[in-house]
Design goal:
- The complex is a heterodimer of chains A (453) and B (623).
- Chain A has 453 residues and is mostly helical.
- In chain A, 68% of the residues lie in helices and 3% in strands.
- In chain B, the strands form five sheets. In chain B, strands 2, 3, 4, 5, 10 and 14 form a six-stranded mixed sheet that branches. A five-stranded antiparallel sheet of chain B has the order 12-11-18-17-16.
- Chain B has 21 helices and 18 strands.
- In chain B, 35% of the residues lie in helices and 17% in strands.
- In chain B, helix 11 runs antiparallel to helix 20 and helix 14 crosses helix 19.
- Chain B has 623 residues and is α+β, with helices and mostly antiparallel strands.
- The relative contact order of chain B is 0.11.
- Classes of the chains: A mainly alpha (453), B alpha+beta (623).
- The interface between A and B is large, with 47 and 40 residues.
């Protein structure tokens, strides 16, 4: 078999490479359109965003090529070193980097800036793969804690040292990996989803919760008073009540083991607990998060808060919604061209797609991403190497969470969380980082027939 | 759970989420039109290209109404974020409260206005000077822009009521019309209203694109969807500006009206009402203020067109119709004589009369305006033997004749409002006197009193029928719209029921004698064969109204005039001189001779308006 591998591209999954090239090509076109100004469109100038992005694309392709020709064992051998180095880099940025809009996450060199947090994604993926593929399958609890630790370190650094909560959210993607590897059971995942839904309903309709926890006089508690001790006492009492009733029913009606009762109880209690506690938590969040969440859920906010936090989503939905079936045509988007949408070349690049290409364009794009993610999952499952499989799932999960959060934000399904759309959003750090993330896996995958570990 | 199942679950989960997003995208992009509308409102500025209204010319080609440039300050409340409100208030000389009140009026509330993408006129019809000060700082006034409009300009300060005025269209019309949008102008009265559709032209629209900072970024698709406005059609009016001007001068400080019509066409040559106002004051920013001033003048009622909307008893001028009808009915000829003993002998001397020869014939009776004579004539009409003593049948026959002269009905002008006047019905008298009323109950109708009343325009129209010997054309003020031919309905002859040509000649002969030796001899014009009739309309509220009707020349008449001066006393005192000056002006182009100019001066300077109209100073008289 080795004889056939004379070509360095032997066994490279061309399908995924084509999707990659398609995405960066389309991405560049849309960045060009997003920054397009009819007055100066025909001048090539390296300071212009589309020119810079073209340079980033060049660098990315060179990097991708370099990764393909590298020795695949480099990544397995150095996974922890890369992880440790990049975590240190992320700490160093606090002291050596430049403040941009209150976050301390950028290195600036000349006119180029680099965000090390982006690199932490694949580094964490590598470290996680390295750790999980190296330990025995027996000790689930230990594995869980160490794996969570590997994930938590960069999250902690990014949230508390760099103040980039949105970026850190991406690390939740690794939950899917842990699920696939049998470290987190399915019902925890399910409970997580329930918890999220519960939180949303709880925040959106605090009145209903208060109603459930109504006081003895039968009067509703004002929604503004949901932080009160009285309310919280009632909420906790209600929670315990739920828990007990659910547990007793579970025991009596369907006879199961204690363990099952315990886990069912956990699921239900997490759901109801978050349902009750979420509105209280939201009130305690920093103003910008509170504002975004309230605007997203359409809760009554002051005019100033609405202008500040709902404006992006309003404009983004107007741009996308005005696209219709086939869009307004390339470079014809009025909302895009006239800069109604803020951050339209970075986090809100999807607006340009929606406005100028319409539902045909957005539909095509999300399907293309879905194909990418599904392909990554299928590729992961064909690995003999645990390391490659785990890393492959990490890659798929990271793309998935970026897709969901970014597009969800632009269509108003999720609150505004500033993370890029892979290969589409303008920015060297994210493009290069996603390229590295993807091509490490492409490289590892190309060795799937050679490597057994 | 085996890894295969987990893979499937993860694949399905990814697929489901993407499917959910697909639905969401489909909904906002394809199903829901809200976003398309919002995008259009944000990025497109629909600039209406308002057409100039048509110009109005008088019969001699003099420009009566044309256009001048004015500026509207427009606002899009949603885009006001960052506007230098204090500065704008200072320039417009309004308070912050007034500023906010306007926004609230537009959008309902200040918080609503912050989301309101619609465009409103914040300040209308600014003059160039104010506009220049706004434009200087427009970049500071986020959400505001200026739009050029045309407003009316009147060459002469005349014919305000006839020409009418233009104002902003009201909301109820906007709601029901497919043409008008808030802020559009519309003719509110007079010709501007009657001929609105011809005058308004066709609006154009320019679709401009604007960016988030409200900067205009050029035309949408290079103007492919823009349309140009088309100027309204010009109107040729039948007025004679000089005649109208003279009429208004003569009526200064008097209440009343003048109607002058060319009987050979029905064209209104002048339609004067007094008190009047300069039409230029109802243009521009001061419209509301001035309009309120005018509408608050309850004594002068300057907004009423007395020539076409107010009706008065015709007084003795009505005797002409009695004479015509009686001759048609065969109960009177030029030789018929009746006695007069300073009053009507058959009704205890009522109505009374002045001293003159008796008995007398028709010609002299018209010249002297004998009340007794025409009471006899009126009695002979309704007590006609052919109705066998049925007074009511006689009355109905008389009434039909009157109606055929355009009295008691609208004469069918192109003015937006012309009153019907009042012609009592049999039913009315049945109610007042019971079923069996008799001639003497209604005898004062014969001398143009009682419930009978006509607008000056109707009085003039009656004279047209006499001048034409039996027909009239509907009086009208517009001869031509744009390049179109004159309207056919204006060339339609309306025949009266008096078809006996000799009857007209007999009456006209009497009217000629009015000028030669009768009640209006002082108003005769040298070299012009004028026929007239004085009237003194009894006014229950105060001094009698002075009435005069006339036409000239006697052969091929060119002008008919009816003048009514409220509280002017006898017809010969005010109305006859005014009418004769109008005739002279129209037929000769000027007022010539010292004696005539002296009359003109006396008329112009005469002041009846400061007299309390409710105090009677003169005795009732009927000639």
């Amino acid at each position: 078999m080795r004889e056939k591998s004379e070509s360095i591209f032997y066994n490279v999954d061309w399908f995924i490479v084509v999707i990659y090239l398609l995405l960066i090509g389309m991405g560049w076109m849309n960045i060009y359109s997003a920054v397009y100004d009819p007055a100066t469109s025909d001048v090539f100038d390296v300071s212009r965003l589309e020119s810079k992005q073209m340079i980033f694309i060049g660098i990315s392709i060179v990097l991708a090529f370099s990764i393909i020709i590298m020795d695949a064992s480099f990544f397995t051998a150095t996974a922890f070193f890369l992880y440790g180095g990049i975590v240190l880099l992320n700490i160093a940025v606090r002291f050596l980097g430049t403040d941009i809009r209150g976050s301390h996450s950028w290195f600036k060199v000349g006119s180029l800036s680099m965000q090390p947090a982006e690199f932490a994604k694949w580094a964490t993926g590598l470290a996680l793969a390295k750790y999980l593929s190296g330990v025995s399958k027996a000790d689930v609890v230990n594995k869980l804690f160490i794996a969570l630790g590997i994930i938590a370190v960069p999250v902690f650094v990014i949230v508390f040292i760099q103040n980039e909560t949105g970026c850190a959210l991406v690390f939740a993607a690794f939950i899917f990996v842990l699920y696939r590897e049998g470290i987190i059971p399915g019902y925890i995942l399910l409970a997580g989803i329930f918890a999220a839904v519960g939180a949303v309903i709880g925040i959106k309709y605090p009145g209903t919760v208060v109603f459930l926890a109504h006081n003895v006089e039968g009067k509703l508690i004002e929604p503004t008073k949901i932080t009160s001790i009285e309310y919280n006492g009632r909420a906790i009492a209600l929670w315990v009540g739920f828990l007990t009733i659910a547990g007793i029913l579970r025991l009596l009606v369907v006879r199961r083991t204690f363990k099952q009762f315990f886990f069912t109880g956990v699921v239900i209690s997490i759901f109801t607990g978050i349902f009750l506690i979420a509105p209280v938590v939201v009130e305690k969040l920093p103003d910008h998060m509170k504002g975004r969440i309230k605007c997203w859920l359409g809760l009554p906010v002051s005019r100033a808060i609405h202008d500040k936090y709902a404006y992006n989503t309003d404009q983004s939905m107007i741009a996308i919604g005005s696209g219709g079936w086939t869009g307004k045509g390339y470079l014809q988007g009025t909302q895009t061209k006239f800069r109604f949408v803020p951050e339209q070349e970075t986090d809100f690049i999807f607006c340009t797609v929606g406005e100028e290409w319409g539902f045909a364009g957005t539909g095509f794009l999300i399907i293309l991403y879905l194909v990418l993610i599904m392909r990554l999952i299928i590729m992961s499952e064909r690995q003999r190497s645990d390391f490659t499989r785990i890393y492959g799932y990490a890659v798929a999960a990271i793309f998935f969470i970026h897709l969901v959060v970014n597009i969800g934000m632009t269509v108003g399904l999720l609150p505004v969380i500033g993370i890029p759309l892979p290969f589409f959003s303008y920015g060297g750090s994210s493009l290069i980082s996603f390229t590295i993330l993807l091509f490490i896996f492409v490289k590892l995958d190309s060795h799937r027939l050679l490597v057994l570990r | 759970m085996n890894p295969n199942a987990k893979r499937s679950i993860l694949l399905a989960f990814a697929g489901l989420v993407v499917l959910l997003y697909g639905f969401r995208l489909f909904y906002i992009q394809v199903v829901d039109d809200k976003y398309k509308l919002d995008a259009r409102n944000q990025a497109f500025l629909y600039v209406t290209d308002y057409p100039p209204r048509g110009t109005i010319y008088d019969r001699n080609g003099k420009k009566l109404v044309h256009n001048q440039v004015a500026y509207d300050l427009m606002v899009v409340p949603r885009q006001m974020k960052g506007c230098d409100t204090a500065n704008l208030c200072a320039i417009l000389n309004i308070t912050r409260e007034e500023f906010n009140a306007r926004l609230i009026k537009f959008s309902g509330s200040l918080s609503e206005s912050a989301k309101d993408y619609r465009t409103y006129i914040f300040e209308s019809q600014m003059l160039p000077e104010l506009n220049a000060r706004i434009l200087e700082r427009l970049y500071k006034f986020k959400g505001f822009y200026v739009q050029t409009r045309t407003v009316r300009k009147y060459t002469y300060p005349i014919a305000a009521h006839l020409l009418g005025y233009v104002g902003e269209v009201n909301q109820s019309l906007v709601d029901t019309s497919s043409y008008y949008r808030p802020g559009d102008y519309i003719g509110k009265s007079g010709i501007e209203k009657s001929y609105e559709e011809a005058l308004r032209g066709i609006k154009g629209v320019q679709i401009k694109m604007r960016d988030v900072h409200n900067n205009i970024k050029g035309s949408f698709k290079n103007g492919a969807y823009d349309t140009a406005s088309i100027k309204g059609q010009d109107l040729i009016c039948t007025l004679d500006a000089d005649l109208q001007l003279l009429g208004e001068k003569l009526m200064v400080n008097k209440r009343g009206g003048i109607a002058a019509i060319d009987p050979s066409t029905g064209e209104i040559l002048a339609l004067v009402t007094s008190p009047t106002y300069d039409p230029n004051i109802l243009v521009g920013r001061d419209f509301s203020k001035n309009y309120q001033l005018l509408s608050e003048d309850t004594l002068g009622l300057p907004l009423i067109n007395r020539a076409s909307q107010s009706f008065y008893p015709p007084g003795s001028t009505f005797k002409l119709m009695d004479a015509l009808i009686a001759q048609q009915e065969g109960v009177l000829d030029e030789n018929t004589q009746y006695p007069c003993h300073s009053g009507f002998p058959l009704n205890h001397g009522m109505p009374g009369c002045h001293a003159h020869a008796s008995p007398l014939a028709m010609d002299y009776a018209i010249a002297q305006s004998c009340n007794s004579y025409f009471s006899y004539v009126f009695k002979s009409i309704i007590d006609n033997k052919k109705y066998h003593g049925d007074t009511q049948a006689g009355f109905e026959a008389w009434r039909k004749y009157i109606l055929s002269f355009g009295v008691g009905v609208r004469v069918g002008t192109d003015l937006p409002f012309d009153a019907k006047g009042s012609l009592p019905t049999q039913a009315h008298y049945d109610k007042v006197f019971g079923k069996h009323w008799h001639t003497m109950n209604v005898i004062s109708l014969g001398i143009g009193q009682a419930e009978l009343s006509l607008t000056p325009l109707q009085m003039c129209n009656v004279v047209c029928s006499i001048a034409n010997r039996g027909y009239f054309y509907a009086p009208h003020v517009i001869r031509k719209i744009g390049n179109a031919n004159p309207l056919e309905k204006w060339s339609l002859r309306h025949y009266t029921l008096v078809t006996n040509k000799q009857a007209y000649e007999n009456v006209i002969s009497g009217m000629a004698n009015v000028m030669k030796e009768g009640t209006a001899r002082a108003s005769a014009i040298r070299g012009i064969d004028m026929c007239g009739k004085t009237g003194t309309a009894q006014n229950p509220h105060g001094d009698n109204h002075s009435v005069f009707v006339c036409f000239a020349p006697r052969i091929n008449p060119k002008i008919c005039v009816a003048v009514l001066v409220e509280n002017g006393g006898q017809g010969a005192w005010w109305s006859a001189p005014i009418a004769s000056l109008m005739v002279e002006q129209y037929l000769t182009g000027k007022v010539s001779g010292d004696d005539r100019n002296a009359i003109k001066k006396r008329m112009e300077e005469g002041n009846l308006i400061d007299i309390d109209p409710t105090i009677k100073k003169t005795n009732p008289a009927y000639w």
